[in-house]
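Bench notes, afternoon.
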Amino acid sequence: MNLDDGVEVLKGIGPKTAEILRKHGIKTVKDFLYNLPRDYENYEAPTSIAEMRPGKVVIRGKIEEVKTRPSRKRNLTVTEGIIRDKSGAVKVVWFNQRYREKQLSPEKEYCFSGNFEFRNGRYSLVSPSCAEATDVNLRSGLNPIYVAHGALKSNDFRRFMNNSRAIFNSVPDLFPMIKSGTRKSALFLAHFPNSEKSIKEARKYLAYEELFELILASKLNRRENEKLKAVPIPFNLEKVKEFLEKLPFTLTGAQKRAAWEIFQNMERDVPMNRLLQGDVGSGKTMVAALASYGAILAGHQVTLLAPTAILASQHYEGISKLLASFGIKVALLTGATKKKAELKTKIRNGEIDMVIGTHALLTDDTEFKDLALVVIDEQHRFGVEQRQKLVLKSPPGLAPHLLAMTATPIPRSLQLTVFGDLDVSILNELPRGRQPITTTILKEIEIREKLYPKIQATLGAKNQIYWICKAIDDDPRTETTSVKSRWMKLKNDFPKAKIEFLHGRMKPAEKDEIMERFSRGETQILVSTTVVEVGVDVPNATLIAIENAESYGLAQIHQLRGRVGRGTVASECYLLTAGEISPSRRLRELEKSSDGFYLAEVDLKLRGPGEIYGVLQHGALDLRIASLSDTELIHRAQKDVERFLKEPENMLKYRELMEGITKYQQITTLN
């Protein structure tokens, strides 16, 4: 049996089951083996029912009288039964788990683990996990819990695994940097642990394996990029000085460093592949404009790709003003551009020096005469294929220099792995004159008393306000305030203010119109979901309120907070929480710091890489086990990858490894 065989070759998996598994991404034997337990239930040392005390308990017995009834609460069912052992009986209850009725047989003995607590006038075992006693590893008491996929529950996966024990012996080593047999042993113990220690050791190896693959993909991307050819763009010191002297402001030290790194890259005949990351308001666009000026000075064309029309228009307005006095022709190309054919002819003939636009730049009929620099704003908003379409618009045989920008600060440990040896420039200073944003946590019951006076003062000063809500419509099952209900409340409480709302179900043109009105100052308060664009510059917005703040990730709130503080007026952010629960560490960190790079490191530790990575790239990093905060394991994997690459025959010998890293190569490259 080979790891790339279809799952239907496994015992007990027929055509229908195989189809369900394929729908959930489990297509091959390898996918099946790497469908790891999400957790483990410990059924070790069960107690007798007669000796149970309130709290977490493990018991072993038979179940009877299992029945499901509707609850008085909407969309809730209650499944109840009686568990018996030799010492006595106890009531058991599950909520919205109707399948328990068919799953549990009165003839079989089960192990149950859950909370024994007082509810509705009596003690019950509440929502316990359960497993057939014959399935539980009696030596360790550990039982793996798998994520349900469609009709297949955790018990089904345990059964499939039990039927497939023999295949673990045929699992080959993935790479040479480990002791022979480590991989098959780790996979086996992940599914059939004999102790808590064995789980820890198995998962440590599997985490190392993931990091090795990710880092190897990044290194190979770097090698491939080094093989490409680009046109060298000479650095013209005198002209750049002249450009800087005409600016109405002085660049920050970070902007100067980033610009110098970019100019050095562009002088080479290997395409630049640089990520420019900077916190909100750090001046990334200015650096991009300077790099563009350098490329145009050398006689080449530049394009800047933005994810939305409003961002593209904003870049166009800012950059065209900067470059106009030097006789540089800048054009805007979006879906709404009139006389597109005429503009595209000028671009093709080289009459336009710089084109700023949206997805309209990616169409086949948008051709350039001599494209040498591509700038992509918020590059994670574009898929690999979209980015490559733009890259391929350079002259035959040449790749453009690529500068990608992101307002999402990336933790150093994430840079080392996801982006490998990618060149990174960091803007960690704010331009002079920018005021800090004061962040305050408020309970929702304090809105009228403490927040309304701030709103009144903001409106009186002719400044603008963002109000962020989680939901578009009211939901009777939750207490979350929706965009529409908050909009109505604010209209009633501030009748003289012009208030609009914005959400993701609106048509793109309608969203653009609403944002344009807010940008022009025609709207004073904008009530919105998180659809508010990153990068949209409204310097007059000085207050933002974020409802249900606990339900957002730290990085996401920091991005939302960056909608204000973009001018020279001191700005405020209010994080609104429901209920009486004390604010989380996440909100406390936001209250005390506005340093995006510090917060990114905190977020990585608190939430893991998933959310951060999701903001950076299309697709998912899909790390099953590895933590990008495990710097020791990362360092070990990096050293082993270097050793692996020193022996070219490894890439031929370890075919499975080389095929498997393809997905990582696609999502860790910019070019």
